[in-house]
Amino acid sequence: QVQLQESGPGLVKPSETLSLTCTVSGGSISSYFWSWIRQPPGKGLEWIGYIYYSGSTDYNPSLQSRVAISVDTSKNRFSLKLSSVTAADTAVYYCARVEATVRGVIIDWSSVWFDPWGQGTLVTVSS
Amino acid sequence: QSVLTQPPSVSGAPGQRVTISCTGSSSNIGAGYDVHWYQQLPGTAPKLLIYGNTNRPSGVPDRFSGSKSGTSASLAITGLQAEDEADYCCQSYDSSLSGYVFGTGTKVTVV
User: Fold this and answer.
1) Binary contact (B48, A47; C-beta < 8 A)
2) What is the pLDDT of residue B31?
C-alpha cells in the first residue's frame, strides 16, 4: 500500500522560498503522476500542480510564476518549491498521487482525482 | 479559489439519509467534467470517497453514493453513522481556470 509523507520547514519568512519534499513508500514513484495540494487555515483545498516521474509538469495558472515541482526517482520522492511567499501562502500542504480516467489508451486529463494523500504539513509564513 | 459551492454544514440523526450538494457552473460540472468526493476526518488528510461521479473505491461502504446532473453534483450518505462525522469536499476540473478545483467543503454532524 502506497504511503506518502511530507517533510520540510514549518516556518518560512516572507519573500523567501518554501521547499517541501514528499517521500513515497510502499511502491515506486515511476509510471505515476504526483501532485501538491494546499489548504489555508479554515479555507478550501487548492491544487498547486503535478509532475510525472519523467519530469513533465503542469501547474495551477494562478501559481505558475512562483511554483516548481521536481522529482528524484532514485530516492522515490518529489519536491515543491514556492518562491516569494507571503502570509497568504500559509497552509497545510499535502502531496498526493494522481489518478485519472483512461478512455481506451488515452488519459482524460479533465477527469483526475487524488488518491492517496500524505498526512499534510503546516507551513507558516511569518517573520 | 473555491468555484464549487457546498453548504457549510448538514446534520442528521443516526440511521438517517443526508445529501451534500456541490454547485458549479458551465466551465466545470456543467461542461460535463467528472466530480470526485473526499472525506476528511478531523485532523487527518482527505480520503477519496467517490471518483468519476458515481464510483466507490474498494473499502468505501455502499452507504456513500454520488450523482451528477446539470451544473451540480450530490453526495448521499444513507444509514448515517457517528463515524461519518467529518468534512466532505467535491472536486472537478474547470476549463476557464485550466485546473482542478475543489468545493468549499461541508461539515456533516451526526446529532
Assistant:
1) no
2) 96
Residue B44 with chain A: CB contacts under 8 Å:
119
What secondary structure, in 3-state letters, does chain A show?
Answer: CCEEEEECCCEECCCCCEEEEEEEECCCCCCCEEEEEEECCCCCCEEEEEEECCCCEEECCCCCCCEEEEEEHHHCEEEEEECCCCHHHCEEEEEEEEEEEEECCEEEEEEEEEEEECCCEEEEECC
Q: Give the tens place of pLDDT for each residue, B78-91.
A: 999 999 999 999 99
Which of B34, B38, B45 is facing A119, going by the closest CB pair? B45
The residue among B89, B96, B100, B102 with the most chain A CBs within 10 A of its CB, best to mutate, is B100
The C-alpha cell 510525472 sits at A52
Q: Does B63 touch chain A (CB under 8 A)?
A: no
Q: C-alpha angle B4/A45/B13, rounded to 5°?
A: 70
